[in-house]
Fold:
Amino acid sequence: MKAKLDLKRKGNFNISLANRKIRTIASSICFVLLVIATVCTSGVALAQTGHVNPWAPAELAPLPPPASLTNGVWLKGDLHVHSRHSKESSNNPVAKIISFSKSVGINFLAITDHDNHVDGDVAHHTWADPDFKSDSVLLLYAAEWTTTRGHGNAFSARPYDHQRLYDVRDQRDVVVGAVKKELGIHLSANHPSGKDHFGYSYDMIESIEVWNSAVWSKNANAIMIWDDMLSSGRKLTGRGGSDAHHGTPETPAQETKNSYQAKANYVGTPTTWVFATARTTQAVIDALTNGRVSISANPYAPRVEFYADINQDGKMDMMMGDNVKATGKPVKFRVQLSGNTVPDGEYTISIVKNGDPFSTLKTTGKILIVEFIDTPATIGRTYYRVAVEGPPTVYPQVPGSMALSGNMVGLSNPIYFNFDPNF
Structure:
């Protein structure tokens, strides 16, 4: 009798166990079906929310017309040079830099000594140097903001309290930006890629060093960063700077291991051109901020000029740095090389549109002009810039620079369409 009961209990237990397994399997199947149903319908559900991106491109309000294309003067200069007030510099006193600049036709100069070498007190060192003066070269008040997060150049038409900028170098960007705004200075990112890259927000700068020193090949990443910033709506001026630290020694006894650099990279390698409304330091700063700027391999190399005829009436309406609303109609663009070109030299003009290659044109002869037509989008941003390659231009005072720059002749800044001025 006991054996029968045990057998019955065992049977009931097996049935109960089987039922539990069936219920577990059924629950799992239901869960899987629920997940599948959710996944399959989620796309529809998201599409039905009516989400509208508040930052999506939209038609801009009317933009102010571009400034005059004739009321101005082209000035050339170097925006990154170090004197004896930078500790690692050699044989490069302020007087020598200014005298050399004058001899090669430089119109403006920024002597940007490292501020950390004097604990931020640039005003009582570089600017207080008795030789910091010139009757022909416009001298900007400048310094290289040298921090653990990277380097930048500060530019001003008049003395400012650089000590305040140095003191906040390790603070958050919002603090740095507020101080920079109060000082009223133009802040520029130096050599943005590499060891001393600019590690701060690009929203608090007006320009970026896209061509550092005569060594053109090392600037590829800087150009990439520039295009990234432009494509995202940031209207940043591209500029150059020799970053020269070393001058030619007066005697063999003054030679250092870096003295050779003076014959390969010195003032004007590269040269930054600005279309300024006057021959004043403030006009140079304003042009640099507005982007009416191009860069040449050296002071004697051709200047790149870039214009656009919006209505194709044969008259240029805007130049690099200018920003207008697109009309939906074709625009004629003109690239012109001015100044000292190599006779019978062939120049290759590469057009970049929104960061991507757009067209390649070639020109030769005494009048070096090329034109192309394109239609900028009416909604959304569009920008165009150009790079020019060709035969190197001789720089007798710095003969080694030609090999370092190679065939790179010059860069333009962009012409902009539909860039929000309040970005």
